[in-house]
Amino acid sequence: MKKKMITFGGVIAAVLFALLAVHHFYTREVDTSKEPDTSKKEPAEYLHITATAYNNGQNDDDGISLVLYLYSIRDQTMSEIARFPIDPDYPVAFADLHDNKVYFSESNPGEDFDNLRTPRVTQVTHIRPKTLYLMDLDFGNYQPIYHTDQFEIRLTRQLDANRILMTWDPFMGASKPRTLRMLYLDTQKVEDFDAGY
Fold first, then answer.
1. Paired strand residues for 46
2. What span, in angstroms and rounded, lies between the C-alpha atoms of 71 and 134?
3. Which of these, 28, 44, 1, 7, lies nearest to 165 by C-alpha position?
4. Distance in angstroms (rounded) separating the CA atoms of residues 46 and 93
5. pLDDT confidence of 111, banded at 50, 70, 90?
6. pLDDT score of 2 more than 60
7. How confident is the model at residue 115 (pLDDT cuts 50, 70, 90)?
8. What are the C-alpha distances in Å from 87 to residues 30, 53, 144, 148?
9. Is residue 23 within 8 Å of 105, Cβ to Cβ?
10. What whole-number distance in Å separates Cα of residue 118 and Cα of residue 107?
11. In 132-162, which positions are buried (b, 16+ CB within 10 angstroms) versus exposed (e)?
């Protein structure tokens, strides 16, 4: 069966999976009565927009809230549907209009689980831990194949059943050009790769 490879931090779906895996997932009832009737024969289409906003509209003195907006494709209008007094670094939210619920992610105070630049990352290593996965073309049957917190993995390309070529940085914000490394799956050995140019 053909497989493809992704970096965990590089694909939105994978990031959402990580958030669900390490966060407490919350749901709240919301009043969607002001929204257009979605029970008509043709269901309305919406774009979910998740953002954060200053509670006082000017600065973070009074805190920050996660805000969920719905943009109506049909009417070309945007409305605020939910606001929560939390300050996630990577806000995620979704409104289930049919069941009148909003789902959103939040970490416990001080845990910073939704931040990929946790205190250890921002203050000590400047490296976001990376896990490479192999999965089927339908995004099923995924399995971890390599993990590191020693360097930043940027892009990957599977060359054959045993070799994966990676572009990498020694840490976030490194000023030198990115270079290549080869990962051998059978031994987990990583070595620098010279492209010859």
1. 72
2. 35
3. 7
4. 14
5. low
6. no
7. low
8. 19, 9, 31, 28
9. yes
10. 12
11. bbbeeeeeeebeebbebeebbbeebebeeee
Closest CA to 96 of 41, 35, 24: 35
- Residues contacting residue 136 through CB under 8 Å, at least 6 positions apart: 1, 2, 3, 142
User: Tokens 């976001």 identify what position?
Assistant: 128
Beta bridge partners of residue 95, listed in sequence order: 102
Q: Which long-range contacts (CB under 8 A, 24 or more apart) does 79-83 make?
A: 79/34, 79/35, 81/30, 81/32, 81/35, 82/28, 82/30, 83/53
Give me the phi and psi of 63, to 5 degrees please: 95, 175
Q: pLDDT class for 31, splitting at 50, 70, 90?
A: low
Residue 77, CA distances (Å) to 16, 65, 70, 74, 98 in order: 27, 22, 8, 8, 20
In terms of residues, how long is the chain?
Answer: 197
pLDDT exceeds 90 at position 190: yes
